[in-house]
Prior knowledge:
Elements: E1 5-9, H1 13-24, E2 28-33, H2 37-47, E3 50-52, E4 63-66, H3 73-79, E5 87-90, E6 106-111, E7 127-132, H4 135-148, E8 151-154, H5 157-187, H6 196-209, H7 211-214, H8 224-233, H9 238-258
Parallel strand pairs: 1-2, 1-4, 2-3, 4-5, 5-6, 7-8
Antiparallel strand pairs: 6-7
Amino acid sequence: MSTYNISFIGAGNVASSLCTGLAAAGHTIISVASKSGDSARELAALAGARHRKDLSVPDSCDILFLAVSDSAIADVAARVDIPPRTLLVHTAGSVSLAALGRHRNAGVFYPLQTFTKGFPPDLSRVPFFIEATDSRSLELLRELGNSVGAGSWECDSLQRSKLHVAAVFTNNFSNFMMTTGEVIAAEAGFNPSLLKPLAEETMRKVLRMGPLMAQTGPAKRDDEGTVKSHIELLSFSPEHQELYRLISNMISGYYKKGSK
């Protein structure tokens, strides 16, 4: 396996996980920079790298990761000062490769995972989705994903954007559904922590059976009476009523269609 000298601009959740994971896989982190000096300084110290206060990187840098907010990628890419041979990479799901403004030595290294401070994921189980301006850069990113994660999958910017939408449904929306469940349990006068065993069993079944087979509930059974009574019970919140109605109709329609 080839190893590379890697720098980061950005020191948030994604940068922290990638930085430590790449270092553990044998790559060398040579510099970390960010708008917030403290976070970059701490991450650099953790990785044995140099903390930088500007947008330049050492001449020895093979790969520069722009692990910044989606809206900042194009601006930072236009201003960054890097050697011509350095591969410039962003990590966003919904930002095109073209945002980097380069026809060579540019790519995307998108980890399909959720990142939260204090809860670093096991990168060895994370799939990476890659895109690049040229074959050399694509092969380098393929090697990188294989060295640190569960593998590398090539995809274009449109495919990656759709995959990002899928990730929002799988992670962000499902998580908010559990937040909503806690609100409703509290409205009934119970400690929301009582829902935890249900959440654990739900995910256990999803991972074992797949979500299609794991689905249960009144909407899947097409139990219109129970669905109607639940909507009435949510009268304290018209938003929750609308959410329940919409999702129940989608579940019912999906499984009716599947049974034909």
